[in-house]
Amino acid sequence: MTGLDGGTVLVTGGVRGVGRGVCAAFAGAGAHVVACARHEPQDPPAGVRFVRADIRDSGDLERLAAETGPVRAVVGNAGGSPPLRAAEGRARTHAKIIELNLTAQLLLARAFYGPLRDSGGTLTFIGSVGAVRPSPGTAAYAAAKAGLESLTASLAAEWAPEVRVNCVRAGMVRTERSALHFGDGRGLEAAGRAVPLGRPAEPREIGEACVFLASDAASYITGACLPVHGGGEPPSYPSARGAVDGSAHESAHGGDRKESGRDL
């Protein structure tokens, strides 16, 4: 038993990719799931109620909270970034990436603090391994995700014991947008082979971690960032040594595994 049966769970960005997997996991745990996004999907997730909302808009968030009603858990999943090097693109584009992935998450938390406090509920953010390692090509996104981990810890301390706040530090995930970062399917599979578990995550696997953090089984967990990355990406030094002696990389990883690409 998860303690989620019959409770309402809101998932932002819940109509595709990781968010869709999170919705499926909570629905499987017996929750009533509400998904929000800026645009109504043509194929909404089965058994999930959709509410249109832009989480960057405080007015939309107030309306979303009213339409959602009493809520047992909130998952802040909406976010992301196209590949964009730090010295390229418009300054406003970088600022909007940070706004979506960090500022909007604070607005979301504020909008749902009251309902979550009343229910003794949980707030879970979807973070990224980019928060704790260099992310060339997605610098603004990674910086925002680093800030999200700090926000998680601060909110957990401020809102305890009524609301538990945690973060899932996700690695690479197979979604319909993977090609933006990895090219065709072969690129994603090659990157996945560099992960100790040998593959990228499926969206529902991220969702199952969110279900755990929202469940009674995690009742003493708050302020945590749970790594869900298949063991993480290998460090660069085995590759550097392998280039010199031809053996260190193979010994370290049991085969010829190249370093993975960027997370999504």
TrEMBL record:
InterPro entries: KR_dom, NAD(P)-bd_dom_sf, Sc_DH/Rdtase_CS, SDR_fam. The keyword Oxidoreductase applies. Residues 233-264 are annotated as: Disordered. Coiled coil: none annotated. Residues 7-176 form the Ketoreductase domain. Keywords: Oxidoreductase. The keyword Oxidoreductase applies. SMART domains: PKS_KR. Residues 247-264 have a biased composition (Basic and acidic residues). PANTHER family: OXIDOREDUCTASE, SHORT-CHAIN DEHYDROGENASE/REDUCTASE FAMILY (AFU_ORTHOLOGUE AFUA_5G02870), SHORT-CHAIN DEHYDROGENASE_REDUCTASE FAMILY PROTEIN. Belongs to the short-chain dehydrogenases/reductases (SDR) family. This is SDR family oxidoreductase.
